[in-house]
Amino acid sequence: MIKDLPDYLAYLEKRNRLLRVQGNVSADLEITAFTDRANREKRYESKSLFFTSVDGYDIPVVTNLFGSTNTLRELFQGSYATEILGNMHAFKSQRKAPSLLKGAKMFMSAKPKAVPSQLSKYRKLKDLGDLPILKVWPNDAGRFITLPLVITESPRDGTVNVGIYRMQVFDNTLTGMHWQSQKGGAIHASEAKELGKTLNVAVAVGTDPYNIVSAITPLPIGMNEFSFSGVIRGSSTVLMKNGKYPAVPANSEIVINGWVNPSETRMEGPFGDHTGYYSIPEKYPVFHIDAIYAKKKPIYSASVVGFPWHEDAVIGQFLFDFLKPALKSMNESITDIYLPPEGIFTNMCFVSIKKRFPGEAKKAMFSVLGMGQLSFTKIIAVFDDDINIRDLSQVMWALATRIDPQRDVQIIQDATADSLDHTTDMPAFGSKMLIDATKKTREEGYKREWPATIGLPKDLVKEVERKWESLRK
Ligand SMILES: Cc1cc2nc3c(=O)[nH]c(=O)nc-3n(C[C@H](O)[C@H](O)[C@H](O)COP(=O)(O)O)c2cc1C
């Protein structure tokens, strides 16, 4: 078990997945340039970077904490997280029921544990000026905290939410709070607005990897991310409550306490986002900072995203594959589902199905669009299961040879959209393109005989393969 961020860095270093960048670097673009370089080294397996000396600050910086799929796999290994998320799937077979039961027990026992505030052991910082907050890209509107765990409590029922939402530094005690309107933090803010209250918010920068990954995972709204991190870790998350603010992990490197007035907004951005573009400035809530605390020797953690490829691609791919059972359990015809990183995750989704009845491709599309954060998806293409949807050349071939656009491409207007999509006329509201690239059947109105796909008998191919190998010797 990894107990905190320094322990995680030691874990990475032992496995040769951490690069120490010695010598002075600037928080102004230079850390981005190093991280960008690390991400071009090896897709899915890039190193985390530890900047020991940052110009003008006495706090080191770490980036690219999740550049390695192997690390993510190891963090989740042996946990019952999969059973819990894919619980409907597990219920289908009695063979799986015992593991579901174990998962449920684990979830109950992973309830967060409260300890008294440890902040007396922390040092109180003057303001945000003490933190090595990055200016990530040249045309960003300023400096942004890019990996904060933003913790809120529902003013209605006390439910906890943890999400990573970037925070633009407006001045040393004021930041933006870029929670998209569909996200947990924004929902708590809208509840506060209805009740005419302000919302106390706690922010943890730097904690153990289980808490960070859990905050990123698109869990159903209302599910406590600190319970889920307990499941991944295999033991309860230890939280400390500090006065009126939501409890933060007791192993936080940096704690920022403050509040949001849900009626107050300010222009946020531009910010170089994971779409590969600068986001269009929009109005977002602001976060008023009451106090900042840091461990005696804290480490500041940041994420750098931009034109693909960066760590968000690694995290997104891993978490999505991990969540797949939940989706498959609701739509058993789905054989695979893939969000190509170049499609920015929210903009493109490929699904393969084993079609058994007319219109089943549509059923698959609608179930994707109705599922949590997948509702942001802009373009969905559904294929038969003979297409490997992770192989772009097979995808292109099927798109070229299995659709008649007037029949198989449909546009759905006025739907919810990702607020990062600059192509829509209005923020977070746009259209969808549904592409049915499955082979059409007579029941679906196709009046001709769908031609067979060319191929050789499998035995013959195998036989020639064997002969071929001997020819090469
Ligand atoms: C590095 C990074 C930055 C992110 N920035 C934002 C952001 O600014 N706004 C946002 O709404 N989501 C952002 N996300 C995605 C959310 O953290 C993610 O959707 C999460 O599931 C939200 O949790 P929630 O459903 O509890 O709100 C970011 C994710 C990562 C990995």
Mean pLDDT: 94
Q: Give the number of domains.
A: 2
Termini separation (Å)?
A: 50 Å
Largest sheet: 9 strands, antiparallel
Rg over CA atoms, rounded to whole Å, is 24 Å
Strand content: 25-35%
Instruction: Indicate the structural class.
Output: alpha+beta
Task: Describe this entry's structure for a reader.
Strands 5, 6, 7, 8, 9, 10, 11, 14 and 15 form a 9-stranded antiparallel sheet that branches. Strands 17-18-19-21-20 form a 5-stranded mixed sheet, with helices on both faces. The chain is of the alpha+beta class. 30% of the residues lie in helices and 25% in strands. The mean pLDDT is 94. The chain has 2 domains: 5-302, Electron Transport, Fmn-binding Protein, Chain A (Pnp Oxidase, Chain A, Roll), CATH 2.30.110; 331-444, UbiD C-terminal domain-like, CATH 3.40.1670.10. Helix 6 packs across helix 9. Flavin mononucleotide is lined by residues 146-147, 161, 163-166, 178-180, 183-185, 216-218, 303, 305, 312, 315, 373.
